[in-house]
Amino acid sequence: MDSPTSGQVAPLSPTWYRSALIIALILFALQILATLVMYPFLPNNVASHWNIYGKVDAYSPKLVYVIILPAISVGIGIFLYFLMRLVAVLDPKSRYRRNPNLTSEQIMRQRRLGLNILKYMLIGLQLLFLGIQIVLLLLALFRVGNPAA
Question: What region, left, alpha or beta, does residue 36 occupy, with left being phi > 0 and alpha being psi -120 to 50 degrees?
């Protein structure tokens, strides 16, 4: 697949990140689905910030409340996607020219390791934002900290 020949580093397949992208998109779709399902049941103003003592000290309109995390999630997802694309097309040997003892196989192994870290970061961050969104929606749904509760 990516076997180096005669000291040259073979390029990575353009589909190496497709599975991570599909998983990240599914997690994002679940985040949007959870938001859409719970949105009609949320109060108009929801608690959006708690102080160090656990008391609510800020409120937000429910529209802002449900848009912030998905927007951050999309922004980070797009950034990591383009970072993965950029790393995939960079010349992998340019970083290692100062160390002639590295073989092409070692260079590709290090490159794949870096790209796998980016893939798992993409999936992990999408999963984290999904979890945070669900917890915050449940807190708002049960009107934790809401004076109208």
Answer: alpha
DSSP state of 8: B
Closest CA to 23 of 123, 103, 108: 123
- Per DSSP, the chain holds a count of helices (H) and strands (E) of 3, 2
**For 77-122, how does the pLDDT look when each residue is reduced to its tens digit (9 = 90+)?**
899 888 887 877 766 556 566 667 777 787 778 778 878 888 889 8
Other CB atoms closer than 10 Å to residue 108's CB: what's the count? 19
Residues 50 and 61: their CA atoms lie apart, in Å, by 16
Q: Are 41 and 139 in contact (CB under 8 A)?
A: no
List 8's β-bridge partners, or say none.
5
Interaxial angle between packed helices 18-38 and 104-141, expressed in degrees from 0 to 180 and rounded to the nearest 10: 0
